[in-house]
């Protein structure tokens, strides 16, 4: 090692290190459940939060009689639906995560109510990525 290299190296000790500016992360888009999903006195309202490979359904669900709230991927591929437990004459608030493992992320999700037998679709609405 030459004396010039040693002097140059010593001059750099304690010098500030250049770092890249932190990347700016944009928030995942969200939109309200609008129109509100309704069936008689049963309703669901809240917010849809869209991620790269899933949708979070933040909901408040009022069940009149016994109902279950379902969330489906509606991107022309049927991933298994997600649902609440059966609710009878009560109000609950929670989040359903709907996985949509496709490149580019989900573009559309459907919410629906089913009855206590879990067979009849009582009401259904579709919601698009904002």
What keywords describe this structure?
single chain; 130 residues; mainly beta; Immunoglobulin-like; eight-stranded antiparallel β-sheet; 1 helix; globular
Account of the 3D structure:
The protein is mainly β and 130 residues long. The chain has one domain: Immunoglobulin-like. Helix content is 8%, strand content 50%. The chain is built from 1 helix and 8 strands. It has one helix at 3-12, and strands spanning 30-32, 37-39, 42-50, 54-73, 82-83, 87-99, 108-114, 121-128. Strands 1, 2, 3, 4, 5, 6, 7 and 8 form an 8-stranded antiparallel sheet that branches. β4 (54-73) and β5 (82-83) form a beta hairpin. The longest helix is centred in the N-terminal third of the chain and has 10 residues, at 3-12. It is globular, with a radius of gyration of 25 Å. The N and C termini lie far apart (61 Å). The relative contact order is 0.21.
Q: Which percent range fits the helix content? A: under 10%
Largest β sheet strand count, sense and barrel closure: 8 strands, antiparallel
Order of helices and strands: HEEEEEEEE
Distance separating the two termini: 61 Å
**Treating each run of at least 4 consecutive H or I residues as one helix, how many helices?**
1
How would you sum up the global shape? Answer: globular
How are the elements arranged and paired?
Elements lengths: L2 H10 L17 E3 L4 E3 L2 E9 L3 E20 L8 E2 L3 E13 L8 E7 L6 E8 L2
Antiparallel strand pairs: 1-3, 2-3, 3-4, 4-5, 4-6, 4-7, 7-8
Brief overview, please?
This protein is mainly beta and 130 residues long. The chain has one helix spanning 3-12; strands at residues 30-32, 37-39, 42-50, 54-73, 82-83, 87-99, 108-114, 121-128. It has a single domain, classed as Immunoglobulin-like (Sandwich).
């Amino acid at each position: 090692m030459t004396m010039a290299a040693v002097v140059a190296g010593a001059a750099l000790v304690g010098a500030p290190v250049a770092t890249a500016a932190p990347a700016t992360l944009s928030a995942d888009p969200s939109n309200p459940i609008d129109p509100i999903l309704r069936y008689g006195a049963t309703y669901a309202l809240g917010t849809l939060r869209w991620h790269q490979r899933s949708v979070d359904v933040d909901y408040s669900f009022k069940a009149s009689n016994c109902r279950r709230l379902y969330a489906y991927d509606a991107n022309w591929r049927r991933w298994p639906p997600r649902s609440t437990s059966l609710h009878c004459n009560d109000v609950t608030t929670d989040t359903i995560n709907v996985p949509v493992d496709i490149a580019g992320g989900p573009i559309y999700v459907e919410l629906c109510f089913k009855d206590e037998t879990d067979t009849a679709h009582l009401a259904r609405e579709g919601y698009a990525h904002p």
